[in-house]
Amino acid sequence: MVIEIEARTTVPRPRPEVFEAAAGSTAGLARYFKGYPPFIPAIVEATLEGGEPPRTGATRHVRMSDGSRIVERILALEAPALHRYDMLQLNPLQRLLCTNMVAEWRFEERGAGTQVTWAYAIHPRPRRGPLPRLVGFFLQKAMQRCLDTLASELASTPR
Questions:
Q1: Helices 131-156 & 15-23, crossing angle to 10 degrees?
Q2: Report field, pTM of the whole predicted structure over 0.90
Q3: What is the spatial order of strands in the sheet that 98-110 belongs to?
Q4: What is the largest CA-CA distance in the chain?
C-alpha cells in the first residue's frame, strides 16, 4: 500500500520563472518550506553535493528545524516541467513509519500563469496502523503551505 498526497497552486508567472524559484536552486527549499509545526519541521538549510545547480542524480542534504537531517536524491530534473526526488536518508520519524518517500513537482502552463502540483508517494512500513496516514495528512498541510508561500511571494514580486 502506498499513501499518495498532493498539494496544488496556480502562480501568476511564466512556467520557467516558477520552476526556477521552486526547483532551480536548493535555496528555495528553506525559503518556502515552513513545515507544519509541531508535526512537520521546517527546512532550515539545504545544500547540494557538488554545488549548484541541481541536476538529475545529485544528492541534497537537508537540515530541519527539529535538528533532524534528511538526504534526498534528485531522480529527474527537466526544466521547466518536472522535479522528482526520493529519500536516501530519512529522519527518525520517517524511518519509523516509512521505507521511502518519492516526491514529484509538476509545472504546467495555465493561461498566463503556472499550475504547480506537488505529489508524494509515501511507502509505509508494514503494521504501523494509521500513523503513516496521519503524518501524510500533516505533510500535505505543510506542502500546501509551501506552495501558497511560493505563489504569494512570486505574485508580489515585481516583474
A1: 130
A2: yes
A3: 3-11, 113-124, 98-110, 82-89, 69-78, 59-64, 43-48
A4: 51
Angstrom distance (rounded) from CA 2 to CA 15: 30
- Boundaries of every domain in the chain: 3-156
Our CA angle for 39, 139, 126, nearest 5°, is 90
pLDDT, tens digit, 9 for 90 and up, residues 78-104: 999 999 999 999 999 899 999 999 999
Written as nine digits, the cell of 99 is 521505507
5, containing H or E segment: strand 3-11
Question: Could you name the CATH architecture of 3-156?
Answer: 2-Layer Sandwich (3.30)
Is residue 5's pLDDT more than 90?
yes
pLDDT higher than 80, residue 158: no
Q: Does pLDDT of 28 surpass 90?
A: no
- Read off the C-alpha cell for 104: 514529484
